[in-house]
Amino acid sequence: MDREQLADFLRTRREALQPEDVGLPRGQRRRTRGLRREEVAALSGMSADYYGRIEQARGPQPSESMLAAIARGLHLTLDERDHLFRMAGHSTPPRGLRGEHVSPGVMRILDRLADTPAQVMGPLGETLVQTAPAMALVGDETRFTGPARSIAYRWFTDPATRLVYPEEDHGLQGRFLASNLRGAYTRQGPGSPAAELVDELLAVSGEFADVWKAHEVGLRRSEIKRLRHPEVGVLELHCQTLHDPGQEQVLLVYTARPGSESYDKLQLLSSLGTRQPGS
């Protein structure tokens, strides 16, 4: 681990970013060149003290997950992300499966959707980053580890996952998730993360095995998606998607028709905070 070079790289990238680049207000009295350390820490989902020690070349060796979070927070390119990993003493993530890294362009779009439920999903249904309204709507889906990072795995193994959807939509949702996983399995091939996830699900869920046998591919849902919230009830939302094929990711954006009951409920969610697990 090259602490000095790592600290210098983080500082230069932080100073090269402006508040507007990451969706933050500049403020009238701002004198800091680029972003503040605490702003980068917040964007990366870690404490300001932890990030500050790394940038001051006196912190512990960051884990791979912390480095990935910093790369997203600083809007690094893939080459910059790999450079970050090497300086921190880690092997670079495989380029063949790029699903973990969110591109700077997609991050800039997400930053401008700060008041809208939106999230970036990886190729296996992993939620990589969410806006605050998205956490209020469906909960913090970035907290999971291992196979549970995939919404498909959670759907067939954790009943609490289904509470977000009205019960009458459960059958179609399960088929849709299996169809998406089938597509990832086909693209990645045997021995891939997608294949490993399929094997794990087949071993623990008879329901998944039954749905998987149907071999449905390319299943499409209606543009209207119904989600259930414990405090405001069912919302009918338009789910718009932006695909990033180079990263094998999709940006989901939820909106409601102005003047509708769901629109009013969506506005109310911003005051309720992150939805609690299992609610």
TrEMBL record:
InterPro entries: Cro/C1-type_HTH, Lambda_DNA-bd_dom_sf, MLTR_LBD. GO terms for molecular function: DNA binding. Residues 28-81 form the HTH cro/C1-type domain. Pfam families: HTH_31 (PF13560), MLTR_LBD (PF17765). Gene3D superfamilies: 3.30.450.180, lambda repressor-like DNA-binding domains. This is Helix-turn-helix domain-containing protein.
